[in-house]
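Structure in, sequence out. Go:
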């Protein structure tokens, strides 16, 4: 049973996506990840984007710990339904409509956040989680990361969760990796936007 680990909604259980198409982040990894993010003081008041959200556990943990806005992006119908239930629970617990769910492919949702004609983002985010399915190729992930880089606030942090057997992500030139950590079968990668000279 997955749960919110800490913060205002700490202890609340999260519904899981039925079947084995999604791979939930273990509580151990989630705890380590969020204690690192809190030590960097980047969650309070953050605008958070949770891509390939699954049950929404990462984004909703951020909401519990002080994020002011969380967008969960998922396209699988079963996962979307679970995201909506978990987001509703968080919003009720926090007495605020912090979490929202967007159904669609990650790349098409990201395209909608960026105005191609003006080259100006319609929305920007401070923290972005990507926990893509293992079959997603490194080239596809690089394309998605490039789109992510177009909607980041200046001091944003991007976190990519991959199998420890997956190769290092191919980072676009607009993102600079600055840390990584392996937890058993899971490898977390951290990056930030490259500031223009």
């Amino acid at each position: 049973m997955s749960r919110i680990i800490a913060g205002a909604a700490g202890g609340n259980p999260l519904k899981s996506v039925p079947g084995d198409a999604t791979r939930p982040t273990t509580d151990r990894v989630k705890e380590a990840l969020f204690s690192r993010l809190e030590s960097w003081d980047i969650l309070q008041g953050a605008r958070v984007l949770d891509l390939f959200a699954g049950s929404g556990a990462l984004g909703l943990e951020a909401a519990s710990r002080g994020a002011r806005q969380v967008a969960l992006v998922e396209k699988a119908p079963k996962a979307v339904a679970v995201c909506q239930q978990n987001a509703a629970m968080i919003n009720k617990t926090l007495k605020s409509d912090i979490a929202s769910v967007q159904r669609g492919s990650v790349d098409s949702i990201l395209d909608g956040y960026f105005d191609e004609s003006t080259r100006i983002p319609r929305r920007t985010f401070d923290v972005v989680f990507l926990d893509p399915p293992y079959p997603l190729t490194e080239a596809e992930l690089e394309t998605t990361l490039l789109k992510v880089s177009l909607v980041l606030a200046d001091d944003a942090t991007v976190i990519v969760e991959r199998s420890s057997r997956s190769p290092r992500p191919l980072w676009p030139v607009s993102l600079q990796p600055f840390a990584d950590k392996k937890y058993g079968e899971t490898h977390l990668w951290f990056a930030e936007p490259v500031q223009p000279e």
